[in-house]
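Protein Record: Sequence and Backbone Structure Tokens
======================================================
Tokens: labelled as protein backbone structure tokens, with as many entries as the chain has residues.
Task: work out the structure tokens from the sequence, keeping to the layout shown below.
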Amino acid sequence: MLKQKLIHPTINAVLGAAGHHSKILIADGNYPASSKIGPLAELIHLNLMPGLVTCNQVLEAVLSAIPIEEINTMMYETEGQYALSEDPPVWDDYRKTVSDAGLDLELKPIEKWNFYDAVATMDHVLTIQTADQQRYANILLSVGVRMDDA
């Protein structure tokens, strides 16, 4: 029996095989996961119905299972029709989840097209497609190194 929050067998298998600096994308329901994916990445669909499951719920589960050293978010537009004047509300949820997991990591935004490029790399091992409907909810995690003796 697993003690961590993450119990999905395929996700656990991919994470177990991932190494330092491997990339894990937690994608919202609007992310083009079939075309913006690394060439070796596994795609897992957890989008049951709109809003179920969310990126933050997946983040909580993943943080319980593996060490993370960096978190990138997709940068929102600052000009034009879809411009935001402040960080999307979902980013505050992420900050709380990261803090609750005992991590001291900042969210590092990447411009949209550069975010897609960061995902489409050989070290991208997993995309978890959610049904999150919040804008700018995509997050790209970099696997860290396990530092404890447990």
Notes: Strands lie at 23-27, 42-45, 68-74, 107-110, 124-129, 139-143. Residues 20-143 form a domain with the RbsD-like fold fold (CATH 3.40.1650.10). Helices lie at 9-17, 55-63, 89-100, 112-119. The chain has a mean pLDDT of 93.
